[in-house]
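This week, look over our next protein:
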Amino acid sequence: MSYSVHDICEVFFNLEEKYDLNYQEIQGCYPWQLIRMFLYYDITRRTQTFGAPQQHSLSIFDKIKSFTPFVKNSLISNPFSGKDTKDILIFDHPRKVMYDGEYRDIYSYFLVDFLKDSYSFEVLEAPYLNKHFTNKQPYIKYTDRIQLGSYIYKKFNKVEFTQEEQELISNVKRELEESFDLSINLEWILKIHILNFTYDYKKYSELFKKRRPKIIFVVVAYENQAIVAAAKDLGIAVVELQHGTITDYHLGYSYPRKTRLHGEIKYFPDKILTFGDYWINEETCPIDSKNIVPIGFPYFEAQSKDFINIQANNNQVLFISQGVIGKYLSKVASELSSKLKDHKIIYKLHPGEYETWRQNYPELVEASKRDDFEVIDNSQTPLYKLFAESNYQVGAFSTAIYEGLMFNCKTFILDVPGVEYLSDLINKNYVFKITNSQDLIANLDEFTPEDYDKNFFFKSLDKKLLKSVIDNG
């Protein structure tokens, strides 16, 4: 049986309503909020709703080799070293992009630049694939010390559920397994997340008491619940910076009213700074609309300026890939190339697919031998340049789809799992949903999108509004 994103989310929402899961306190925390996204990713992968991400994984040798840098970073870039207090702490995105000659977090670098002259702050950086890519700066500390401690803590501690807790877990496990015809080790998932949270919460509480920040910024709050919880319990404002598409089916942000039975979602940030006015539905977001602040997306604003006036090639079609749906999209791109001889096809891989696409996408390998088909498997070619040069874009639910709309790309969305994320754009006729390559060919020129306000998606950085958030929390 196949499952849509809608199907899976509805199972989650119904269970949350039935068992009051978001408010069930177990072992001193709210573990459903901790495992919600992990469980969603696990189920979408195992039901083959989404394919497995293509990102290169670390070998045992890589993990052993990286242990020494973890220890070294824990000593020389220990976030607990020094006695200074800081007005602001920033937990940036681990994955960095080469920008202006150095690796930077595209979602928070503007905040660092804004703060440098007038505020005391510190950036807390987690490793990405067990490495750090940024140029070391005095204001950057690494969280390796906490991650290493958490690893050791899990080795020597365990969680024992009470009979009442075990009964609840068994009921939820049974219903999940019946819904998806899977075996789910829910008890193990809960224990690992509870142990992680318990240790991290304690350490971040210690750190925040030492640094005494007034406000904390975090990218991807739903993967950093211990940071959010420790800060909020100490009365420190927590502000999340948007890092991607937010929809009613993104379980990092979607808590429909029927699942919010007792008000506050404990591990949700106090405010979210969004790219524009478009992004968050007040019906599913568990914070008041006044705390959803459209601040802008400075990275897009800066990068797009060099390419926004490039004349598009009327016959160029750009495919925007993602690891979880690449097997579907690569097939459509290959078929389009064989059927549409007078068009140039550009297939832009996601960075996580660069190393594995030749093994995973045989149709793409074959298509790349044609003169009118090009696979981009590097980050040297600016994505925004590709948007500017292309008259059409085809994809699934990547945030890049919205960026392509800013370049007036006529946009086609492949009907694959996750298409629900863009249902609003489809319903408003800003983009067109297709089922296969033939459907795409038939509508390349026939589809006429409705006009849309570009600033609604990505506005220019509002510095006055940003300063207000920083000063007032």
